[in-house]
Write a structure and sequence with these properties.
By secondary structure, the protein is mostly helical. The chain has 17 helices and no strands. It folds into 2 domains: about 150 residues, Ammonium transporter fold (Orthogonal Bundle); about 180 residues, Ammonium transporter AmtB like domains (Ammonium transporter fold, Orthogonal Bundle). α3 packs across α4, α8 packs across α9 and α14 packs antiparallel against α15. The longest helix has 28 residues.
Length: about 375
């Protein structure tokens, strides 16, 4: 009897191992850039392709290129505010469709590169609007502003490509500042709340609450999408984790660094608690910590330095632009990441060409393969 049950036990063990391996492989297909999905969608309906392109555009805001991550982010926005979710959806669709109509590069469109700026513009218009939710007239500037991002993206890319620099969110930052300058707080059709400088004095200042500061670190990831709710922010962090665990670690680390920088400059407690002090640091840390540079201990320290620089630059710009009621948006992280990409020296050897940027884990794997190939080539040459 023992001899009969032993092969059956071994077969059951192999079957369980095979099932676990299939489940793991299926989960791995949902991570990273999901390049296999693009091949699968080539002969599908245009509406389905547009949905995937739009979701990639949503994920591009958090420096990811994964439609499932985009779906999680969109779910988080609808969870936090259905109105904001609607505006974000409309913004990414308006900019993506504009890019298709005017004949932008199909590879850029399918990768979501023409969607994320439009989404950010629409979200910030909704956040700063003082007309309240479900103010339908706001859909007009949302569509126009999102569409205009495509023209700015196309124009800036022809200039920045000479230095192999990404356009990033320059169009969003430009459009939202122009919109707020055009309308003003007392506009009869599109009024908005004036921004408050980060260093503004609080009349009824109280002691700092440590738990709220810790919450602010998590909210710093959500504030990349102008989302200040804890649950949706955790879901957005999960979307980053799905794309790349390394990127998620740098997002939290950068937000913590930004919060620490805010503490050192005694910014308003509201900025610390709401995550506004952390999101530029998160973006700066993510951009350098494995996305545009291959991850190593040097680039990790470089990413922390980028987070500090982004956070302090954000405080300075918030105090400057806040005097005229304008937000600093993500100017600090965008300018800092661009500056870091222009650096020369030993760190430039870790930089990844913009056209070859993938998930950080894939970047590390590609670099290790390249170094292994060079080692074999040198050994064969020496022989």
């Amino acid at each position: 009897m023992w001899m009969d049950t032993k092969p059956e036990a071994e077969e059951a063990s192999r079957s369980r191992a095979s099932l676990s391996r299939r489940v793991l492989n299926s989960l791995l297909l949902c991570t990273g850039d999901m390049e296999h999905l693009d091949k699968y969608m080539q002969d599908k309906l245009f509406v389905l392709q547009l949905a995937v392109w739009g979701l990639r555009g949503v994920a591009r805001v958090i420096l990811a290129n994964n439609p499932l991550s985009g779906a999680l982010v969109l779910a988080a926005l609808y969870w936090a505010s259905p109105w904001q979710g609607l505006l974000g959806t409309l913004g990414v669709l308006a900019s993506t469709l504009t890019a298709i109509i005017i004949g932008q590069d199909s590879a850029e469109v399918s990768a979501g590169l023409h969607g994320f700026n439009g989404m950010l513009v629409s979200l910030l218009m909704g956040v700063f609007s003082s007309a309240g939710d479900w103010y339908w007239w706001l859909l007009l500037p949302v569509c126009l502003g999102s569409a205009t991002c495509v023209f700015l993206f196309s124009g800036l890319s022809s200039v920045l490509d000479r230095w192999d620099l990404p356009v990033a969110v320059f169009p969003f930052n430009i459009i939202i500042v122009l919109y707020l300058l055009c309308t003003g707080p007392d506009n009869p059709y599109f009024p908005h709340h004036p921004a408050t400088p980060a260093g503004a004095l609080e009349p009824n200042s109280t002691e700092l609450i440590a738990v709220e500061v810790m919450h602010g670190i998590l909210l710093g990831v959500g504030q990349i999408f102008a989302c200040g709710a804890l649950g949706p922010s955790l879901l957005i962090l999960g979307a980053v984790l799905l794309y790349s665990p390394l990127l998620a670690i740098h997002a939290l680390l950068g937000s913590a660094v930004g919060t620490l920088a805010g503490l050192s400059m005694a910014v308003r407690h509201g900025s610390l608690y709401s995550g506004l002090s952390g999101f530029n640091g998160a973006l700066g840390c993510m951009a350098v910590g494995g996305l545009f540079f291959t991850f190593s201990w040097r680039t990790h320290l470089f990413a922390i330095a980028s987070a500090f620089l982004s956070a302090y630059a954000d405080i300075a710009l918030s105090n400057l632009l806040g005097t005229v009621g304008l937000p600093a948006c993500s100017w600090a992280a965008t300018l800092t990441a661009t500056l870091m990409l222009l650096l020369t020296g030993s760190l430039s050897a870790y930089r990844i060409p913009i056209g070859q940027v993938m998930a950080p884990e894939r970047n590390m794997h590609s670099r290790s393969q390249w170094e292994a190939g060079n080692t074999v080539e040198r050994e064969s040459t020496d022989v």
